[in-house]
Design goal:
Layout lengths: L5 H8 L10 H6 L3 E4 L3 E5 L3 H21 L10 E6 L2 H5 L16 E4 L6 E5 L3 H21 L5 H12 L2 E3 L2 E4 L4 H7 L7 H4 L7 H4 L1 H20 L9 H11 L6 H9 L3 H14 L5 E4 L3 H5 L2 E4 L2 H16 L4 H10 L5 H9 L3 H13 L5 H10 L14 H17 L4 H12 L6 H10 L6 H15 L3 H10 L17 H16 L32
Helix pairs in contact: 5-6, 6-10, 7-10, 11-12, 15-17, 16-17, 17-18, 18-19, 19-20, 20-21, 21-22, 21-23, 23-24, 23-25, 24-25
């Protein structure tokens, strides 16, 4: 299978320019199908058989990938895939070059979104386009399970490795060699491992073309070895790869210590191992059985309605080129007043929080079944994100928010952001629902970046319930040192400031002395005091 290098794709994803509108008559001449599988949606101009085969392959890819990263369930946003029958048809919606003209060398583009990610492709070169899709969907699957703290070398290496996924009937294969990476690795000195594993988003190896290619190639080689290479020890297992990703989220643990503890390598030994692996020239593939028929049986297919065609293509054009499609979507909303989809797309299109919340609310009132619409409503409505611990919601407002948060969890029980919002609502409810608190407590160990806001909400609830010691424990977890109250590096502003203010309230309620902020000029302000990890327990568990 052919693949597209990510540096090129990154450039494409950043290309959001003004565009021409697509004439309705040309859309009407296209025969669109609307398909859905267990985890994907599709708008396709290809044949029904080819479209179903693509969805089956994507479901097989997802199942095989998750075999390599066994974790607790996670919420994956449903991906909408657009399959254009020809390259010329795709170019009418595809990215524009710097000259403002459609690019003619693009087979597929992945577009992220808080409401619904999309992938648009030409059906003339499916293998090439799917290489891009597998790469980007790997990022999405990893992020949903391990948050945004995944080391970049691992994230990109895994995406490159799985981009070469192939399937033949019920047999899936990973580990195909990427010749363009091998050619570069055989003619370019490798990056020192200490540099490779600490590359950040601002690093030259991630931004400068003369350095990023070797970074991607070496990251691919490392993941190929970790997954398919001959193992000489017991440290390289699927479970330990998961442990590495989880431990990497703790910024207090040095990267070399994480590598050694989880995978059994120091920088020197991993560098030597990769050099030996490259020189050996032996790159085995891993095969597994993933039956196609169960995935095929869950696919539904029908002709797309005019509303679906016009709305989805307008939404794609807005995301791909930044085109203002608000007039078209408003017309669709008026023409189809009982359909929530135009409202969902208007909410996604809006950059104004109040407008986003208003459109989401209209979609919800029309029966939207997209959990991300509920999440965006709660995130963008001001009262739902109030942080002042003294604030209490009016009963009718609280009841409305609770109903939407409960429905969100019903639609997406593995969405940790849903529990984050639920905790924020309960923190400001006049009567806190104890069963809901326990539900949030149970989800806290599964959270990634969501846990910090959730911990603040739990601390607020504990303070309101006069569980001051527990409230202090949660706040201390958000602050690096209970003695100096320095902000924890993983706690983002303004959350750290909110935690410090609530801590003063809690300490005053306990009758404890308030800490004196350390002087910036005092040498003692640099002193670190070791603190114990707080026990994050429910009120009835201590």
């Amino acid at each position: 299978m052919k693949n597209c290098s990510l540096p090129l794709l990154t450039f494409l994803l950043a290309t959001f320019l003004a565009s021409i509108a697509i004439a309705p008559s040309s859309r009407a001449a296209e025969k669109w199908l609307r398909l859905s599988s267990e985890h994907f949606d599709m708008m396709s101009c290809a044949s029904e058989r080819a479209s179903k085969n693509m969805l089956v392959e994507l479901e097989q890819f997802r199942a095989v990938f998750l075999d390599y990263f066994p974790t607790a369930p996670a919420y994956d946003k449903r991906l909408m895939i657009f399959v254009f029958d020809t390259a010329a048809q795709f170019q009418r919606y595809g990215p524009l070059g710097q000259d403002g003209k459609p690019r003619d060398n693009i087979a597929g583009v992945f577009l992220s979104s808080p409401m619904q990610p999309r992938f648009a492709m030409s059906g003339e070169d499916i293998d090439y386009a799917f290489g891009v899709l597998f790469h980007e969907y790997t990022h999405a699957l990893l992020s949903a399970r391990f948050g945004d703290a995944i080391p970049i070398w691992f994230n990109e290496g895994a995406a490159e490795f799985f981009s070469a996924f192939q399937v033949n009937g019920d047999t899936a294969e990973v580990g195909d060699t990427l010749e363009y990476h091998l050619r570069l690795l055989n003619h370019t000195p490798m990056i020192p491992i200490g540099t490779l594993v600490t590359v950040t988003g601002g690093s030259p190896y991630y931004n400068e073309s003369d350095k990023m290619n070797i970074f991607y190639a070496q990251s691919w080689l490392a993941l190929h070895y970790l997954i398919c290479g001959a193992k000489t020890g017991a440290s390289i297992t699927h479970a330990n790869l998961v442990n590495y990703l989880r431990m990497s989220a703790n910024r207090k643990i040095p990267p070399d210590e994480t590598l050694k503890k989880c995978l059994g390598f120091d920088y020197n030994s991993l560098g030597d191992t990769l050099n030996d692996y490259l020189r050996s020239g032996k790159f085995t593939r891993a095969t597994t059985k993933e039956p196609a028929q169960p995935h095929l049986a869950k696919i539904t297919s029908r002709p797309a309605t005019d509303m679906e065609r016009d709305a989805e293509l307008a939404g794609l054009l807005a995301r791909m080129r930044g085109t203002d499609v608000t007039p078209q979507l408003n017309q669709l909303a008026e023409k189809y007043p009982d359909n929530p989809r135009p409202r969902e797309l208007l909410a996604e299109r809006s950059s104004d929080r109040k407008e986003t919340a208003a459109q989401c609310l209209k979609a919800i009132e029309l029966g939207s079944a997209n959990p991300l619409v509920y999440l965006q409503y709660l995130r963008n409505d001001t009262a739902a994100t109030e942080t002042s611990p003294q604030y209490l919601m009016p009963d009718d407002v609280c009841a409305s928010y609770r109903a939407k948060a409960d429905r969100l969890i019903e639609l997406a029980p593995d969405c940790m952001e849903a529990y984050e919002m639920l905790a924020a609502i309960e923190a400001h409810a006049r009567d806190i629902r104890q069963p809901v608190m326990l539900k949030v407590f149970a989800m806290l160990p599964r959270m990634n970046t969501e846990k910090y806001n959730t911990m603040f909400s739990i601390a607020t609830m504990c303070w309101r319930l006069k569980e001051y010691t527990k409230a202090e424990e949660y706040l201390d977890a958000l602050l690096a040192d209970p003695a100096t109250r320095h902000p924890n590096p993983v706690t983002r502003r303004p959350l750290a400031g909110n935690a410090q203010r609530l801590l003063m309230i809690v300490l005053k309620a306990e009758g404890k002395p308030l800490p004196t902020p350390p002087s910036k000029s005092s040498p003692s302000s640099k002193t670190k005091v070791k603190s114990q990890n707080p026990k994050l327990l429910a009120p009835d568990q201590q």
